[in-house]
């Protein structure tokens, strides 16, 4: 397992989370009219999801589990391996859904949902990072 690579990705994840916290407007209505904040939040949330998937696929590659066939399946495998809880796997799969919408259908983004993710669900990424860090402490 290349823990230096995983550590780099965890640091990038931390920076993306921090950027969202720093640039999130005070309410959803403000986000609707702030195109710079929209770009910063959507980019960094998308990046955070992608980093979590990348970390997960790296962990799976170093295990006896078969490679995931979808991004969401990555989190199911990590749950099966006992790395993350079923609840966190479910929340991370929902984040993949947001990522797919942001990447493939940007104009359809509901900014109230983005605001909700930015204010109430960053803890999902932080919980994921802690689970991965705990794993590295045991190896």
Summarize the structure.
The chain has 139 residues and is mostly helical.
Mind sketching the topology for me?
Elements lengths: L2 H21 L4 H6 L1 H27 L9 H10 L5 H19 L6 H10 L1 H17 L1
Instruction: Kindly report the name of the CATH homologous superfamily.
Output: bsu32300-like
Helix content: over 70%
Order of helices and strands: HHHHHHH
Strand content range: under 5%
CATH class: Mainly Alpha
Number of helices: 7
The total domain count is 1
Query: Which word captures the global form?
Result: elongated
Taking all residues together, what is the mean pLDDT?
94
The main pleated sheet reads as:
none
**Intertermini distance:** 9 Å
Q: Return the CATH topology.
A: Four Helix Bundle (Hemerythrin (Met), subunit A)
Radius of gyration: 15 Å
SS class: mainly alpha
Which architecture would the CATH scheme give at its second level? Up-down Bundle
| Annotation, overall tally of beta strands | 0
Low-confidence sequence ranges:
none
Folded structure, characterized:
- This protein has 139 residues and is an all-alpha fold.
- The protein has one domain (3-138): Up-down Bundle (Four Helix Bundle (Hemerythrin (Met), subunit A)), CATH 1.20.120.580.
- The protein is 79% helix and 0% strand.
- It has helices at residues 3-23, 28-33, 35-61, 71-80, 86-104, 111-120, 122-138.
- Helix 1 packs antiparallel against helix 7, helix 3 (35-61) crosses helix 4 and helix 4 (71-80) runs antiparallel to helix 5 (86-104).
- The protein is elongated, with a radius of gyration of 15 Å.
- The mean pLDDT is 94.
């Amino acid at each position: 397992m290349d823990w230096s690579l995983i550590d780099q990705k965890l640091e990038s994840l931390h920076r993306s989370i921090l950027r969202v916290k720093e640039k999130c407007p005070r309410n959803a209505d403000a986000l609707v009219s702030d195109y710079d904040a929209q770009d910063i939040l959507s980019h960094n949330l998308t990046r955070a999801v992608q980093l979590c998937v990348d970390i997960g696929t790296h962990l799976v590659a170093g295990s006896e589990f078969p490679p995931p066939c979808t991004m969401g399946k990555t989190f199911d495998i990590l749950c099966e391996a006992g790395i993350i809880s079923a609840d966190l796997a479910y929340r991370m799969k929902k984040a993949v859904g947001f990522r797919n919408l942001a990447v493939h259908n940007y104009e359809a983004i509901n900014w109230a949902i983005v605001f909700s993710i930015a204010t109430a669900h960053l803890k999902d990424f932080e919980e994921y990072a802690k689970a991965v860090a705990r794993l590295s402490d045991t190896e």
